[in-house]
Amino acid sequence: xxxxxxxxxxxxxxxxxxxxxxxxxxxxxxxxxxxxxxxxxxxxxxxxxxxxxxxxxxxxxxxxxxxxxxxxxxxxxxxxxxxxxxxxxxxxxxxxxxxxxxxxxxxxxxxxxxxxxxxxxxxxxxxxxxxxxxxxxxxxxxxxxxxxxxxxxxxxxxxxxxxxxxxxxxxxxxxxxxxxxxxxxxxxxxxxxxxxxxxxxxxxxxxxxxxxxxxxxxxxxxxxxxxxxxxxxxxxxxxxxxxxxxxxxxxxxxxxxxxxxxxxxxxxxxxxxxxxxxxxxxxxxxxxxxxxxxxxxxxxxxxxxxxxxxxxxxxxxxxxxxxxxxxxxxxxxxxxxxxxxxxxxxxxxxxxxxxxxxxxxxxxxxxxxxxxxxxxxxxxxxxxxxxxxxxxxxxxxxxxxxxxxxxxxxxxxxxxxxxxxxxxxxxxxxxxxxxxxxxxxxxxxxxxxxxxxxxxxxxxxxxxxxxxxxx
Amino acid sequence: xxxxxxxxxxxxxxxxxxxxxxxxxxxxxxxxxxxxxxxxxxxxxxxxxxxxxxxxxxxxxxxxxxxxxxxxxxxxxxxxxxxxxxxxxxxxxxxxxxxxxxxxxxxxxxxxxxxxxxxxxxxxxxxxxxxxx
Lengths: 471, 133
Description:
heterodimer; A: about 475 residues; mainly alpha; 2 domains; 23 helices; about 60% helix; about 5% strand; B: about 130 residues; alpha+beta; Immunoglobulin-like; four-stranded antiparallel beta sheet; three-stranded mixed beta sheet; 1 helix; 12 strands; about 15% helix; elongated
């Protein structure tokens, strides 16, 4: 049944002993979500009732320093949307829909062959994109300083996401929240394209001949894909939440998880995805200036609830939105247009060129975020020791580490690591641009002329980040 | 130099390799720190006090020293962050300034490597049959 592996792919279910057994257990996802759920609610409680000082409260240190670093620097590059596998936010909503934590229900009413509760409405077609995630994430990030530094704000926002997810699960079928609303899911979808794992069908012919389509419609062994994708036709990682249901539901044992090279996909399919890339690179730049930079006036503007400088905040917000929604897109539009003109070849539309060359921001943006996050964890990581002993900042010393002095962990290596990460991101960005150009423009000189402006722009972006970090 | 929630003024100090740096720092609001790991300096800046309480993180157990002026020799080049080491408020983890000791070769090398990578990519794309992988 299994055809040859596609070039550069390794079937992890075949080579990792026990992995297939583990991932196809019905209890697997519940077992990995449950501890995460317990910690998540501990953090929410700590945010609500613990110390208002961020560095003394576990929600700030664990969520915005430890979790963030692990997410962007480890989970996404290595394991795609593995966070979505263990995410506690949709837990109650999904339970409401399924009325099951482990088992599968078959019957009507429901979705596909699965019996499901709730209104099971279809998500509006007009919102079937990631624009909501784009604007939601940008809005949250506009208020990033209160969110990242005030425990109560973190609790309100994360608790609000749980509430919103639950309400949307009651109204809409399956994981509408995760797919179209979750602000975290938006950038995970973008950067998971670079990831080194993928869930795919082993043999497309088997899928062609399959009549029950249980990966899509569900069955007695698994729920139909809750992410509104057809697992048998997956070509990109963006919208696969790694829930592993298709591994369980496929009646032909034809779904698998493969390892692959980093940066295997960068093709953006629509303006919503392109703007996600622009927003993310713009935010990485803004955070690098406002949070990691030395300029007090910018910190004051970004922190209006404490500084009282609401006029400065308005300026900061307008600058942030203009940068991410207009200036960065305009720069890439101009680069794509110039490249198209230089290549002098008909047949590639402006939209194709714009989306194609905007794809360079997938690896470059991920690299910029990792570079931004490196000093965060090296410098502030030692707070983890304090808050695991005193999660609410109330003077406890549960593990004897509450009074460990703050000590940066080899921050002298941060600059070297940032340079290495940004150079790697630039390499993959140039490769992405070249792949698009060589595929669409055919002859080499035309492809080089087409990619040149986007390549120069990417290099300038990487150089700009390097100047901020080490210049 | 002054320290306040959550910045130093001036935010960036530029010196040359071999310069002796002398800093008098006062706090405009609460107690702050001045942690310059690259030069093994950790100072507490106490409001209304003319003194800095300095210690050296690598020399554990040494008594804290009270000085009016923080003095060190800029004997290595690059961009170094000094950070607040005393929890001073919500944005404390992001309170930092920069000491740039010229010539900053690492920055030059990093930014140069970016353009070198671009040039190498262009060379490979133009010269080799299959271009970039």
